[in-house]
Amino acid sequence: MAEEDVVVSKRISSGRTQWPIFAALVVVAATIVYPLYFVIITSMRPNSDYLQDPFGLPGIWTFDNYLNLINTYGIGQAFLNSLFVGTVSVTIILVLASLAGYALAKLPVPGQKYITATFVSVMLIPGPVLIIPIYLMLARLEIVGSYTGLILVYVATGLPFATFFLTLSFRGIPDEVIEAARIDGAGFFRIMWSIIAPMGSSGLATLAVLQFLGAWNELIFAVILIPEESMRLLTPQLASIGERFLTDQPLVSAGLFITASVPLILLAFASKYIMQGLQVGVSR
Question: For residue 263, what are the contacts with CB-CB under 8 A and spacing of at least 6?
């Protein structure tokens, strides 16, 4: 009986200590969910209805704000432009970072520590410092105003972190599995495709989501390097709409929800892989 009393008392004490953590998590969740709820509700009401009661429920439900953004302000084309640039950029980054990460993690690369330290030091450079040099370089190459220049910038700025992250992730793959594949005659690319990619899928998925979100939400380079309005990405296009329609909060809220829709979908489907990938990165 004494042992049972001890077990019960431990459960009660642990439950008491978990309540403050649970309450804190509820508060954090509320601070995240309520702004999203407010944006969705506001986007589905006319501006006149919103001005009458900004924090109340809509008196009139409508999708006119979304239709107005797509038909009048070219948000549909800007959405596709962002999707194209983000997908191509992330694909190139994943391919290059996977090869470099595997080499740095599992192959005897000369100066490996110095290369890794270089990647870390490059990540510490603020992005705005690179705006003028990058613009001048792309202007000499005559690719300012094209998606090629913007994709190259996203790849160049995202590759150091991607390589560093995958290097840490791939170090957790057992060397015995790779050695067995080499004995069976597998080469570099065969090992990459059949062993490294499947066993490092959580790290690759995490990196893909993080890099895509960075490219999707990026504003400064997208504005400077793509000045033509018909070629604008989603974030710059919505920023220009927000400047012109500060008094039309429902229209701006509709644009904000369109911007947040893709990240929300990605995070919903890839949350498990993201947690696994981050745990691998922290444990290394």
Answer: 213, 216, 217
